[in-house]
Amino acid sequence: MKIWVKRIVTGLLALLLIYGAGRFVDVYSGSFYTGERAPYLMMPAPRAMTLRWQTAKPGQGRVRFGRTPGKLDQQVTEASAAEEHELRLQGLEPATRYYYQIENQVAGEAAQTLYSGKDYWFVTPPLTGKPAPLRFAVLGDPGYAGVMQTEVRDALMTWLAENPRPDRALPYLDLLLTTGDNAYRSGSNKQFQQGFFSPYRTILRNVPIWPAYGNHDARRWAFFDIFSLPSEAESGGLASHTEHYYSFDYANAHFVMLDTTASSMTVGSEMLDWLQRDLAATTQKWIIAAFHHPPYSRGSHDSDNRRDSGGRMFAMRKNVLPILEAGGADLVLSGHSHMYERSYFSGCHYGDADTLQASMLRDKTTGTKVAYKKPGRDGYSGTVYMVIGSSSKQDQGRLDHPVMAVSLAEAGSVVVDIDNDMMIARFITRAGLVADQFSIQKTAATGQAVPCS
Ligand SMILES: [Fe+2]
User: What's the predicted TM-score (pTM) here?
Assistant: First the structure.
């Protein structure tokens, strides 16, 4: 080999080695976030709530709590010292606001109060099955820190403040759901802090979070360490015995969170088997499912492309939708495509876009302010599918999937209100405008459900 060729090859190898070492250091150091993480709430139940937070120094955590900020008359303390803290408050009253204070006891030092005052509160869910009003927000692919994320968040908070719920005792939101990709680019612990916990900290201290598991979350191992998720039906539903997928209840609504990123979606797989049993077991009036990969999308991903995202959108549509629809799903939330798409009131569409038949659109009303009527669960008549993937990033796409009534290249978030028989969902853009709105009203079931032919 000529000397100059040798030199180039050696130089390239050296560059590759330096790059590889840099990447390794970056990945390794990013996986260990050692700073503070403000409190966040998980696994709400009518009588329990989990609080988590992180401290820079190891210490024993203590939560004092009570019904007014000036009278925190109950407390729980951790058994041992650590930087990552988790305490589950038990024996709470349903539908009740609690204020809390977090302290840290470092060995040999005086206990330090880290978070306290009137801004630190949560409200327990009402008893399951009760038709109490529910308001939740959905952030889609929210974990990219930047101006768009801040604008979407602020537009959501402004809209909520300007459109408060009728009862002042109710919190501004009961729950916060995501459709996955909670921390770009790789879901490392450090990126979770920068892309998720820091920007949303004022919401997360009051509103329990239910995060879907996205493909970017799965690039590292932080997701299941950071989040406390139910495997034994801690928040209702049927125990799944895994944190990857689970269900929970709130008032008269049943939520199903699926893992479209790492769990098998083949017919007869554990997740699908559990899903079938879970939906058969619930008697709740409303069924809402959330997961990352959309069954229908022509945004920055194409759900008909078998090579796109490892065919997971195709598998979701073909294998999971029939179970969700047979189980009476009213609303299906997903992300991954960085835009907003919302379907007609539809059912039985499990093939590619070009196989959509007119009969699959159960209500063909177009426009951005529509009202669908739907019989109770026994007389299944349709589902609305939403792709919410633009809460921190917004991309381009064809936006012409025929099952979609509305497709927008807009950044934003979604607010859903449920009150007894009525659901209203709104897409709030980064400019604070309601760019889409639909409602579903449940009516008495008449006759048998029409099966898919
Ligand atoms: Fe994704």
Answer: 0.94
